[in-house]
Write a structure and sequence with these properties.
It is a single chain. The protein is of the alpha+beta class. Helices cover 61% and strands 17% of the residues. It is built from eleven helices and eleven strands. Strands 6-8-9-11-10 form a five-stranded mixed beta sheet, with helices on one face. Strands 1-4-3-2 form a four-stranded antiparallel beta sheet, sandwiched between helices. Helix 7 crosses helix 9. The radius of gyration is 64 Å and the shape is rod-shaped. Bound molecules: adenosine-5'-diphosphate.
Length: 483
């Protein structure tokens, strides 16, 4: 059974007081007993002395010379006189141990006989049986013992007094125990409540509940509660920090493994994309080795090798740009750019290409400025325009528009091309992703343009989206923070 700390404290204190009362009463009772003994021994010794004096007087007054003779003839009478004098039952014995006075009920007991034998040796002895005390002393004439006188002393009063004192101590002890237990319980209650609250707090902390409170007490328990409260706050903070660190770490690990997969995929794609033009170049070179005099083959091979080489070159350029953006902290030379001028100059450079494919260009340009890196902006516009041409229809049209919308400068490039299947809209920004491999290849595309565009736009704090794409064409929209 588990006792609360207050019960234990109270029992301890009450027991301590009880022990004190017990020791005190033990000593007092022992003192009383000793004192009573001393008193009646002294009293009975006096009685014996009186008996001796009285024996001598009586013998002299009645002209007796022989004490044995006096005791045998006048013993009973003398004992009655002694009884009156001492107010006790008196028995007289001669030197043979025979009773010379009135008979007494106890005279035959063994203990009495033993005591008598002792007294006949000129010694004083007494025997106590319950509440009776038989005191035997030598009867003497001068130094000579002539018999034994026995007083029957009652211990009833002594015992009653002793018992009443003992009972008093028992009562006082019980009352003290009860009162001290109650008082101690009340006194320790507030301490114990504090300790119980602390124990509960610690129990909760053990199971991860760190909500603790400070006990408003100006003692060690109060200080301890403040300590536990602070400690629990600290543990809570440390665990939260650890959890957030763990979260960051697992995010970083995720990101790293994602990057790793992306990188592997990227390298795989690069190798694959490089292999196709190289295979084609090698095939033409092999054919030329076999038919060195075939002029037609030579011309076709020249054309193909040229176009594949250009493709390879462009691919290497873009791959380099992309990996630079990916790996290094790319340094942008940002400046205030006149967007109108920039768009115009890019469009001018594309005039020949537009004419070649018979594509009409419409513009709705307005003066606007952004804070950006000029080369990056050219790459963005060139790639989007290039796609608008590449994936357009015959006699198609491209519209380029710029305007300001709230805090953004918007550029929209709309074509009347083949459009992008809606479910692939997200994918086209991934490196090497092309909707139609053959068409991209025919147009010299490798699927790197849009991923480059997205990277550059993001680096400028901008965003890119496809406003619509269907069989009538596609509208790309990019937005940059306005100056
Ligand atoms: P590519 O070098 O193949 O043009 P991009 O990354 O620029 O690579 O584009 C990825 C793919 O997105 C293209 O292969 C093409 O299928 C599709 N795409 C891009 N722009 C357009 C457009 N304006 N109209 C239709 N499809 C487009």
């Amino acid at each position: 059974m588990k006792f609360s700390i207050k019960v234990k404290f109270s029992i301890f204190l009450a027991s301590l007081l009880l022990l004190t009362v017990y020791i005190l009463s033990f000593l007092v009772l022992k003192g009383i007993k000793g004192n009573q003994k001393e008193q009646y021994e002294k009293y009975l010794a006096q009685q014996a002395q009186t008996a001796n004096v009285y024996l001598l007087q009586t013998m002299l007054s009645e002209a007796f010379v022989d004490p044995t003779e006096f005791l045998s003839s006048k013993g009973e009478e003398f004992s009655l006189k002694l009884k009156v004098l001492s107010n006790q039952l008196v028995v007289l014995y001669d030197m043979n141990g025979n009773v010379v006075s009135k008979k007494d009920a106890h005279l035959n007991s063994r203990a009495i006989k033993e005591t008598l034998e002792y007294a006949l040796l000129n010694k004083t002895a007494y025997l106590t049986e319950e509440e009776d005390l038989y005191y035997m002393a030598p009867l003497k004439i001068g130094a000579k013992q002539v018999g034994v006188v026995q007083f029957h002393y009652s211990l009833t009063e002594n015992k009653q007094f002793y018992q009443s004192i003992r009972q008093l101590f028992i009562n006082i002890g019980s009352i003290i125990f009860l009162i001290s237990f109650i008082l101690a319980y009340i006194y320790f209650n507030s301490f114990a409540n504090g300790i119980i609250l602390l124990e509960q707090m610690v129990g909760r902390i053990r199971y991860g509940d760190y909500e603790t409170k400070v006990l408003r007490r100006k003692d060690e328990i109060g200080l301890l509660s403040t300590g536990i409260h602070d400690m629990s706050k600290q543990i809570k903070k440390t665990i939260a920090d650890m959890e957030s660190e763990q979260e960051k770490l697992s995010l970083a690990v995720d990101k790293l493994s994602k990057l790793d997969t992306q990188q592997k995929q990227f390298i795989g794609n690069v190798t694959h994309e490089f292999k196709t033009p190289l295979t084609s170049i090698k095939a033409y070179l092999d054919l030329l080795d076999m038919y060195p005099d075939d002029v037609d083959l030579l011309n076709i091979a020249k054309e193909n090798i040229k176009s594949e080489t250009i493709r390879l070159y462009e691919m290497v350029e873009k791959v380099l740009q992309l990996s630079r953006l990916e790996v290094y902290e790319f340094e942008l030379k940002k400046e205030k750019l006149n967007l109108l001028e920039l768009i115009k100059s890019v469009l001018n450079g594309l005039e020949g290409k537009l004419n070649k494919f018979n594509i009409k260009l419409l513009t709705e340009l307005s003066e606007s400025y952004i804070y950006a890196d000029k080369d990056s902006m050219i790459i963005i516009l060139m790639n989007l325009m290039d796609n608008a041409v590449k994936y357009n229809r015959d006699n198609g049209m491209i519209t380029v528009k710029n305007y300001r919308l709230e805090n953004e400068v918007i550029i929209e490039i709309t074509d009347t091309g083949i459009g992008i299947p809606n479910d692939l809209v997200e994918m086209i920004f991934e490196p090497f992703y092309t909707v139609d491999k053959n068409r991209a290849r025919l147009n010299g595309g490798v699927g790197l343009g849009l991923s480059l565009v997205k990277k550059y736009v993001t680096l400028h704090g901008g965003r890119i989206s496809i406003v619509y794409t269907n069989e009538t064409g596609t509208m790309f929209r990019i937005g940059f923070p306005a100056l």
